[in-house]
Amino acid sequence: PFNFFSVTDAKQTVAFGPGVLSGIGAAIETIIVIQAKDEASKNRVCGRDEFKVRIRELVEDNHEPVNSVATKHHLPLAKDTNAISIVAATKLKARAMRIKRRVAEHIVSHKIQDCGDGTYLVKYTPNQPGYYQVDIEFIGTVNGKEGPIRGSPFALHVTSSNDKSANSLNGTVVHD
Questions:
Q1: CA 44 remoteness from chain centre
Q2: How many CA atoms lie within 13 A of 96 on its CB side?
Q3: Neighbouring C-alpha atoms within 13 Å toward the C-beta of 147
Q4: Cα dist. 106→44, 54, 59, 94, 130 in Å?
Q5: How far is Cα of residue 146 from the mean position of the Cα atoms in its chain?
Q6: Whole-angstrom Cα distance, residue 32 to residue 160?
Q7: CA end-to-end span of the chain, whole Å?
Q8: What pLDDT, in 10s, does the model give residues 144-163?
Q9: Residue 119: other Cβ atoms inside 10 A
Q10: What are the DSSP calls for 94-147, one per residue?
């Protein structure tokens, strides 16, 4: 018998499991399953694909940018006495006093395991409760169609739950 092995298509490849769903617990290892698929959306039956996975914890950064517009122009405008300059200086000062909300990120380490049958297991442990983003990209091995997989990036909320089963493939988060 002859077996035909098609190449992976990033747009058809999917990821599932508790590691891409909200509601998992912090400080407990969780898993993501990547199922490689070809351009006809059929499951691949062999391994050796390469995926780039990036898991980031998103945290709020309230620091004021060093080179803000108000910092550069506030003093020269304040020396002018005409009404337009005073209004402009007041607006710039108000802008400088507002807290700028930016998002910083912390990279979460992970391990990828090739199961040899077209599936790949990604294991990671979210450090603490909060918001996370999981980016999964197919690299394009063996002339496959590279790019982010279907649904990527995945946004999720990690809780402070102590329920270890929530982070497993047959746990409450997946069933819900």
A1: 25
A2: 16
A3: 8
A4: 33, 10, 8, 31, 11
A5: 18
A6: 19
A7: 42
A8: 999 999 999 999 999 998 88
A9: 16
A10: HHHHSPP-EEEEEEEPEEEEE-SSSEEEEEE---SSEEEEEEEEE--GGG-B-E
Report whether 5 contacts 162 (CB < 8 A). Answer: no
What's the pLDDT at 100? 46
pLDDT value, residue 23: 95
pTM for this entry: 0.76
From the list 8, 3, 14, 4, the residue with the least C-alpha distance to 50 is 8
- The alpha carbon of residue 131 and the mean position of all alpha carbons in its chain are separated, in whole angstroms, by 9
Of the candidates 116, 117, 173, 139, the residue with the CA atom closest to the CA atom of residue 53: 139
The answer to whether 13 and 150 have CB atoms below 8 angstroms apart is yes
Q: What is the bridge-based pairing of β-strands 119-124 and 30-35?
A: antiparallel
Amino acid (1-letter code) at residue 21: L
Could you tell me if 4 and 11 are in contact, meaning their C-beta atoms sit under 8 angstroms apart?
A: no
